[in-house]
Specification:
Length: about 375
């Protein structure tokens, strides 16, 4: 078997790499066989970058989302059809809720005002992650640029934090409506609702900047493969060159504030709601109140459980088989379940949907 000097072999490697692959240090090294070079040249571009040795001084300019690449082609086709159906359902249902809560005068109450904004956040959330995953299920090139990865992570942080805070405000709204019904209109006025929604967005935007900085404060010169279908912070931080423990600890501390603080408000609100319900004599009133509150609690449990596992668990307990199910839970399952839970357990929402669909059918009939 013939051998090439390392400088020539590395030159062949560099020319055969993907245009955006990390350069190889060709200054010195052992001899490389011609067969190995040929094998390297015929690998697929994104798999080939796995063999690149990231030496000192090299930096990562792109990431590779492994996602479901290790699954068979038939499994990926099945996943594509499933996730496309879930994504379409989530977009349609959330879009319908946004439309009816902002146009139907019968839903002119703080609860539906918050619900409309929750659906808008869900639309933003699934649009940030799911379309990219669907594309990667049908193409072989899973490369994303450094800027694209950081932008996606910021949007996930921003929308996720805003949704956590908004759910706490929705719990407070239910507490005021049930425990202080006579003062409800005064306490939860339109101006107060606007300020609460603005506060949720503000904290999401500011907190996203902080978490983005903590995630990308260290340079990246190790393996650039992300074992998930989107750029999730703990996985990306683990790929950095410096000590990732400080960034992970800061994200953990931030998660305590962002997740546990709203959860405390939610628990207090529903504890007082429960005490107020049990003190009532009417069983029909209890049933209606339990129906309304159980919908909100179901949404809270879905979102907070998955988010806590992703951002508050020790890194040693994570892995591709564990991370992906929880990532799917809060990126597509929860946004899809939110409108279904609120719609099917609320007579006013079902009536508004029927009226909206009826107006649409009438308008189409008149157009014909």
């Amino acid at each position: 078997m013939s051998f090439l000097p390392y400088n020539q072999a590395a030159g062949l490697q560099q020319n055969s790499l993907h245009p955006h692959s990390v350069p190889v240090d060709r200054s010195s090294g052992p001899e490389i066989s011609t067969a190995n070079v040929i094998t390297f040249m015929y690998q697929s571009p994104w798999r080939r970058s796995k063999t690149v040795d990231l030496r000192n001084g090299s930096t990562v300019a792109e990431f590779i989302l492994v996602g479901f690449e290790q699954s068979s082609s038939s499994t990926r086709a099945l996943l594509f059809a499933l996730f496309l159906a879930l994504y379409s359902l989530a977009m349609a249902m959330n879009g319908l809720i946004i439309f009816i809560t902002w146009t139907d005068p019968r839903l002119n109450s703080p609860m539906y005002f918050f619900l409309g904004h929750l659906s808008f956040l869900d639309v933003c959330f699934i649009t940030t992650t799911i379309p990219q995953m669907l594309i990667h299920l049908v193409v072989k090139n899973h490369i994303v640029s450094f800027v694209s990865c950081s932008t996606q992570m910021y949007l996930v942080f921003c929308v996720g934090v805003a949704e956590c805070i908004l759910l706490a405000f929705m719990a407070y709204d239910r507490y005021v409506a049930i425990c202080h019904p006579l003062s409800y209109a005064q306490i939860m006025s339109r101006q107060v609702c606007m300020k609460l929604v603005s506060t949720a967005w503000f904290f999401g935007l500011i907190n996203g900047i902080f978490l983005e900085y903590m995630s990308f404060r260290n340079p990246f010169c190790r393996d650039n493969h992300i074992e998930n279908f989107f750029c999730e912070a703990p996985i990306v931080i683990a790929l950095s060159c410096g000590d990732p423990q400080f960034s992970l600890k800061m994200i953990f501390a931030d998660a305590i504030v962002v997740l546990l603080s709203p959860m405390v408000l939610i628990v207090i609100s529903y504890a007082r709601i429960l005490a107020s319900i049990l003190g009532r004599a009417s069983s029909s009133g209890r049933g209606k109140t339990f129906s309304t509150c159980s919908s909100h609690l179901t949404v809270v449990i879905f979102l907070y459980t998955s988010a806590m596992f992703s951002y508050m668990n020790p890194r040693s307990t994570h892995g591709p088989d564990k991370d992906k199910p929880f990532s799917l839970l809060y990126t597509i399952i929860t946004p899809m379940c939110n409108p279904i839970i609120y719609s099917f357990r609320n007579k006013e929402m079902k009536g508004a949907m029927v009226r909206a669909l009826g107006r649409t059918s009438l308008a189409q009939a008149e157009a014909v």
